[in-house]
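Hey, can you fold this one?
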Amino acid sequence: QVQLVESGGGLVQAGGSLRLSCAASGRTFSSYAMGWFRQAPGKEREFVAAIRRGGGDTDYAESVKGRFTTSRDNAKGTVYLQMNSLKPEDTAVYFCAADPIYWGPRSTSYDYWGQGTQVTVSS
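Sure. Predicted structure:
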C-alpha cells in the first residue's frame, strides 16, 4: 500500500509558476513510477506527466511540454511537478499516482492515487 498526498496548489495569474509536491509513504518510493494527472470541472482526467521509478526518463502531455517538469527525490519520498508559464486552461485538480511498473499516460494502469490539489490560473 502506498499513500500519496499532493500539496502546493493555489491561485496564480497566467504566466506564473507553481511547484506541486506529492509525498509518498507506505512502501519504498524509489520502487514506484509516478504520474501526474489533472481533471478540470466537467472534464475527464487527463495525463500530464510521468517519471519512471528511480528517476530518469520522463514523459509529458503535449499540452504541457516545455512548460512543466516532473522530478523526484527518492530520499525524501517526494515527486514534484514544476509548472511554469501557466495558462488558464491548466486550471484543474492535479493528482499524483504511483505504480510499481507503469509510468505512461494511461490512468487506469496506476494502482495508487493521491487526493488531489487545486490549481487555478486566472487570466
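The mean pLDDT is 94. Let me know if you want another pass with a different chain boundary.
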